[in-house]
Design brief:
The structure is a single chain. By secondary structure, the chain is α/β, with parallel strands linked by helices. It folds into two domains: 2-208 and 403-420, 3-Layer(aba) Sandwich (Aldehyde Dehydrogenase, Chain A, domain 1); 213-397, Aldehyde Dehydrogenase, Chain A, domain 2 (3-Layer(aba) Sandwich). It is 43% helix and 18% strand. The chain contains 15 helices and 18 strands. The chain has helices at 2-13, 20-36, 38-49, 53-79, 114-127, 141-152, 167-175, 187-199, 222-234, 254-273, 283-290, 343-352, 366-375, 410-416, 441-451; strands at residues 82-84, 93-101, 104-108, 131-135, 160-162, 180-184, 204-207, 213-216, 246-250, 298-300, 304-305, 310-311, 314-316, 334-340, 358-362, 380-383, 404-405, 418-426. Strands 10-13-14-9-8-15-16 form a seven-stranded mixed beta sheet. Strand 11 and strand 12 form a beta hairpin. It starts with a helix and ends with a helix. Bound molecules: nicotinamide-adenine-dinucleotide. The site of nicotinamide-adenine-dinucleotide has 27 residues, from helix 7 and helix 8.
């Protein structure tokens, strides 16, 4: 590990990655490698957890192509000096900030969207002019192996290298000194990464998880709300960091909501019957999910098959905040429904918990929408939809509090992997001499006048 890091450090110090043409060429190469390997990528992710070619494209590759195209188009602008105003004290001068790459970066990916969560941070790091060591999650073995083959046979290791492995390899990596660590995964491992980074004062971005609520506040467009909610919850079999974790529905419309919800979920049966429904990543996670099930509260689904690792889309009704299913992030296809009478009480319950990665508000009532957006702190979210905010690269993507530190996507990814070097450039033709000895009453008066600005 140490050799790879040192080789990357030496390469970074050669200043090659600071050249914008170099960055663009590497990004274009990455796109070509992805395009050339699309079929192999489909095959690998299907072998890992039955993810279909359709889902692979719409939830993994499409976002990567967009991120690459966006960076190729805009990186010159992002990397240009940013001129800022200069204050009167410094007259005559100009001020600007130079975005500079941080250096050798480590990207640690999660398993649930293995390509997207590994390559999207790497794209941002490359666009910003860094070298990258990428450690994909070891759980989807085929995608991890393929990413290593794709990158290591096309890029020089001193610039971009995939290191495969699990806990022990990650720990060895974390002992090294990096200039930036970008981690996607659980809160528990996020803490380990943060502690390891603190030893070297390495800056981190932590993309973590949490319990993201969905508020259903009226029935104006209930059919549309339900359609969008069901897709967002059950895509990837609920193994999505920003999936709506649970629903808070106004009691008067709960029955109507449940009816529509179950009718919509029935359509997922089509996916199961056609082997087009994502598997739970491993048996340990199937076991974890079964512990949340309270049979008397299940109004839909609830069954699973440990051999095939298929877990039915499941709805639990009459759930309370003290139930097992409400104690941790579900990260699977179980949707608890909690009815509320008083919106203030519902908001208070959300706020009693850790700040979620996302929050979704379904309503046509502007005042209620604004109230929730104003009062609840969360990473990002949608009004009248769920998870789709991730698809807009003009929006920073990241958590707050326990759901994460920092953000990325589009220009925010570039900023995450950059330092902004602030420069005051002074002209030497004029020197008022106010600050120098000997001080005098007149100088003092002038100084007071000038420093008022
Ligand atoms: P995880 O934390 O178990 O693993 C993430 C990475 O950390 C993997 O590469 C793994 O090899 C490594 N790792 C695991 N244990 C380690 C240890 N003890 N020391 C060092 N490294 C270790 O997370 P996961 O199961 O892959 O993903 C699920 C979690 O990730 C959920 O909480 C989910 O919400 C979150 N997540 C967040 C985002 C986001 O963008 N915010 C995206 C996807 C997943």
């Amino acid at each position: 590990m140490n050799k790879i890091v040192l080789a990357q450090k030496a390469f970074f110090n050669s200043n090659k990655t600071k050249d914008i043409d170099f960055r663009i060429a590497q990004l274009k190469k990455l796109k070509r490698v992805l395009l050339e390997n699309e079929v192999q990528m489909e095959k690998a992710i299907f072998e890992d957890f039955s993810k279909s070619a359709f889902d692979n494209y719409s939830t993994e590759l499409a976002l990567l192509y967009l991120e690459i195209d966006d960076a190729v188009k805009k990186v010159r602008k992002w990397a240009a000096r940013k001129r800022v105003a200069t204050n009167i004290v410094n007259f005559p001068a100009r001020s600007y900030m130079i975005p500079e790459p941080l250096g050798v970066t480590l990207v640690i990916g999660a398993w649930n969207y293995p390509y997207q969560l590994s390559f999207a941070p790497a794209i941002a790091a490359i666009a910003a002019g860094n070298t990258v060591i990428l450690k994909p999650s070891e759980l989807p073995v085929n995608t991890s192996k393929l990413m290593a083959e794709m990158v290591n046979s096309n890029f020089s290791p001193e610039f971009f290298k995939v290191v495969e492995g699990g806990v022990s390899e990650t720990q060895q990596l974390l002992e090294q000194r990096f200039d930036k660590i970008f981690f996607t995964g659980s809160v528990a491992v996020g803490r380990i990464v943060y502690q390891a980074a603190a030893k070297h004062l390495t800056p981190v971005t932590l993309e973590l998880g949490g319990k993201s609520p969905a508020f259903i506040l009226d029935d104006t467009y209930l059919e549309v709300y339900v359609k969008r909610l069901v897709w967002a919850k059950f895509v990837n079999a609920g193994q999505t960091c920003i999936a709506p974790d649970y629903v808070l529905v106004k009691r008067e419309i709960k029955d109507k909501f449940l009816q529509l919800l179950m009718a919509e979920i029935k359509k997922e049966q089509f996916a199961i019957e056609n082997h087009n429904y994502v598997q739970i990543i491993n048996e340990r996670n199937v076991d974890r999910l079964t512990k949340y099930i309270e049979p008397k509260k299940v109004t839909y689904g609830g069954n699973h098959n440990i051999q095939t690792r298929i877990f039915e889309p499941t709805v639990m009704d009459n759930v309370s905040f003290s139930d097992a299913v409400m104690q941790e992030e579900i990260f699977g296809p179980i949707l608890p429904v909690i009815a509320f009478d008083d919106i203030n009480e519902a908001i208070a319950e959300v706020k009693r918990r850790e700040k979620p990665l996302s929050c979704y508000v379904f309503t046509s009532n502007k005042a209620l929408k604004d109230k929730i957006l104003h009062e609840v702190s969360f990473g990002g979210g949608c009004v009248n939809d769920a998870i789709m905010h991730i698809s807009n690269s003009h929006l920073a993507f990241g958590g707050v509090g326990e759901s994460g530190i920092g953000s990325y996507h589009g220009e925010y990814g570039f900023k995450t992997f950059s330092h902004f070097k602030s420069i005051l450039e002074k002209s030497a033709w004029f020197e008022p001499g106010l600050k120098y000895f000997p001080h005098s009453e007149t100088k003092f008066k002038w100084m007071k006048r000038i420093l008022k600005f």
